[in-house]
Design goal:
The complex is a heterodimer. Chain A is of the alpha/beta class. Chain A contains 10 helices and 12 strands. In chain A, about 30% of the residues lie in helices and about 20% in strands. In chain A, α4 runs parallel beside α6 and α6 runs parallel beside α7. The longest helix of chain A has 18 residues. Chain A is globular, with a radius of gyration of 21 Å. The longest helix of chain B has 18 residues. The chains are: A alpha/beta, B alpha/beta. Chain B: This is Peptide/nickel transport system ATP-binding protein/peptide/nickel transport system ATP-binding protein.
């Protein structure tokens, strides 16, 4: 049994302009996440990669109970949590925590660092004294004098560390990190990732990293899943996907993260067009209108999930 | 002494920044945001400006188009463009240059366009100088929307910005910047707000249009990959100074300044073998209210020695025509 097991998760959102949809006899909602399955084991890291609108943040919000799934199952330590009550959630949230995207914006500007990092302890009825605050700051490599500082006095990297300390306050079993390095300088990104790796080694926390940055995924995750329009187009061990991408979208994302070398110009797969809206999904394969290798079949047949030895993809004509 | 061995030195540059210093007055003291910047923007080339937050790259970009904040003050130096000194140009002077010879693409395409007027109206408005008819202006607007590869361009004139996606809006901004056929186009992190696959599209588009129109581009970015993709020359900034400049090839293949080397080492795109311990640059930026006396990077530099504390390094000429603000590149150090 894995720590977290998600099976055929579907999440629908109501769309805007319902009156117009009614008049045109169109559906009132659309599927933001469309049949996603994955597992995470203790001590393991899974990366969810995708561009805006791919549904990756929706999955995160659903996992910590901020959004109800439309269908599918989410099991945490073997227990079904997709329809958990508020009371059950208050227990569950001690075991799973979230690092929010904006490092400074996710911290209340009116609280000191000391009360920010111990706030989760107080909410869950534990003592959040100065000793605890010092211990938590020590865990993320911040000196004790930061206890009396306010968020606006922190740099992006320091604010991110406070976010990590908050997320770790209750010794969670699952940590969800939504774009943990967004908005941070390159020299600080490494610092935050090293910290996450270090914490994971010590506590065996399972981590779900949500990001659009493939370079990040390569160095911190064991497995990765690439999302497009609410589906996993490819999933498997990170090293093997980097070695040989099977789905053309994965390949395009890999080459959109160029190595800084002026001589490597030109040998890139640049995709035409933009991500279509999940309200009007393309026929056949979701990716076919932008796929450089699309064949006539791709606009007709919907590719299913093709498993192959520990990984899977959704492409009729894999690379 | 070494000569100016850059490939572009043969031709008169479009813009020459000479010893530019810019201060910001704040309640907590004067921040010396730019200190003694020397740079040239060659004609018809793309100059990349790279650095991390707080290094002054955006301040430099904004000073090239006269859009510095109210509390900014040019403390010294000049920005020469033809007969003009952009650093000392008044409001009237800027009205003649901005939007004709110098144009800019901003970071966030969501806020760069006016949300309450149509794309078409905004594209007509910026042609207020031209004595041509409204329908000719409209035709020009359509022509430039086609240049930036917006499908069904004519119909987009009646669209409001919110009806377009982020990538499309940035294309509209590029079309508007090029419409006036500027000599100098400043792009301040134009792809930061976009998704990865769109980012590469916009970079490819900028490259294509720059070659077609032959304008000079100053491309500000913290993303080394896109800079390598797009730029001919690159300047690396740290703590308000240019620490290294040269051709993109010399800079990315053979970085000389320890900061450039550290910055390249940190880029996870360069690390081919998966690792769980990524390189970082320990330490923090110096306080620019009191910039350190010697080398600004000294406190974080793995090679620093006594001289770095005593003496502020000038821009030494490097082996491949680049310029390096580091005593390690001093020919006299080799001899010693």
């Amino acid at each position: 049994m894995s720590l977290l097991e998600v099976a055929d998760l579907r999440i629908r959102y109501a769309r805007q302009g319902r009156l117009r949809a009614t008049l045109r006899r169109e559906p009132h909602d659309f599927e933001a996440v469309s049949g996603v399955s994955f597992q995470i084991d203790a001590g393991q890291t899974l990366g969810l990669v995708g561009e805006s609108g791919s549904g990756k943040s929706t999955i995160a919000r659903t996992l910590i109970g901020l959004k109800k799934p439309t269908s599918g199952s989410i099991r945490f330590e073997g227990q079904e949590i997709s329809a958990a009550s508020n009371r059950e959630w208050s227990r569950l949230r001690r075991q799973m925590s979230m690092m929010w995207q904006d490092p400074v914006g996710s911290l209340s500007p009116r609280l000191t660092v000391g009360s920010l990092v111990t706030e989760p302890l107080r909410i869950h009825g534990r003592k959040g004294d100065r000793a605890e605050a010092e211990r938590l700051l020590g865990l993320v490599g911040l000196p004790a004098e930061f206890i009396s500082r306010y968020p606006h006095q922190l740099s992006g990297g320091q604010a991110r560390r406070v976010g990590v300390a908050r997320a770790l306050a209750l010794d969670p079993k699952l940590l969800i990190a939504d774009e943990p390095t967004a908005g941070l300088d390159m020299s600080v990104q490494g610092e935050v990732l090293n910290l996450l790796n270090d914490v994971q080694k010590r506590t065996r926390v399972a981590v779900l990293v949500i990001t659009h940055n493939l370079n990040l995924v390569r160095h911190v995750t064991d497995r990765m899943a690439i999302m497009y329009l609410g589906r996993f187009v490819e999933e498997g061990p990170t090293a093997r996907i980097f070695e040989h991408a099977r789905h053309p979208y994965t390949e395009a994302l890999l080459s959109a993260n160029p190595e800084p070398d002026p001589d490597a110009r030109g040998d890139r797969v640049t995709l035409a067009g933009e991500v279509p809206s999940p309200v009007n999904r393309p026929s056949g394969c979701d990716f076919h209108p932008r796929c450089p290798w699309a064949r006539p079949d791709c606009s007709v047949r919907v590719p299913e999930r093709y498993p192959e030895g520990g990984r899977s993809h959704r492409c009729l004509f894999p690379l | 002494m070494a000569t100016h061995a850059t490939a572009t030195a043969t031709e008169e540059p479009l813009v020459a920044v000479e010893g530019l210093s810019v201060d910001f007055d704040t309640p907590r003291g004067t921040i010396q945001a730019l200190r003694d910047i020397d740079l040239t923007v060659p004609k018809g080339k793309v100059l990349g400006i790279v650095g991390e937050s707080g290094c002054g790259k955006s301040t430099l970009a904004y000073s090239l188009i006269g859009l510095l904040a109210e509390n900014a003050r040019v403390a010294g130096g000049a920005i020469r463009m033809g007969e003009h000194d952009l650093a000392r140009l008044g409001a009237a002077g800027w009205r003649d240059l901005r939007g004709t010879r110098v144009a800019m693409i901003f970071q966030d395409p969501m806020t760069a366009l006016n949300p309450v007027t149509t794309i078409g109206q905004q594209m007509l408005d910026i042609q207020y100088r031209d004595r041509i008819s409204r329908s000719e202006k409209r035709a020009r607007a359509v022509e430039f929307l086609e240049q930036v590869q917006i499908p069904d361009a004519a119909s987009k004139l009646d669209a409001y910005p919110h009806q377009l996606s982020g990538g499309m809006r940035q294309r509209v901004c590029i079309a508007m910047a090029l419409l006036t056929q500027p000599d100098l186009l400043i792009a301040d992190e134009p792809t930061t707000a976009l998704d990865a696959t769109l980012e590469m599209q916009i970079v490819a588009l900028l490259r294509e249009l720059q070659q077609k129109f032959g304008c000079s581009v100053v491309f500000v970015s913290h993303h080394l990959g896109t800079v390598a993709e797009l730029c001919d020359d690159v300047a690396v900034m740290y703590a308000g100074e240019v620490v290294e400049r040269g051709s993109a090839r010399s800079l990315f293949h053979d970085p000389q300044h320890p900061y450039t080397q550290a910055l390249l080492d940190c880029d996870p795109a360069r690390i081919k073998i998966a690792t769980r311990t990524l390189p970082t640059i320990p330490g923090t930026l110096p306080d620019l209210r009191q910039p350190p006396r010697g080398c600004a990077f000294r406190a974080r530099c793995p090679h620093a020695w006594g001289r770095c504390e005593r003496e502020h390094p000038p821009l030494y000429p490097g082996a491949a025509g680049q310029r390096v603000r580091c005593h390690l590149s001093d020919p006299a150090e080799d001899a010693a």
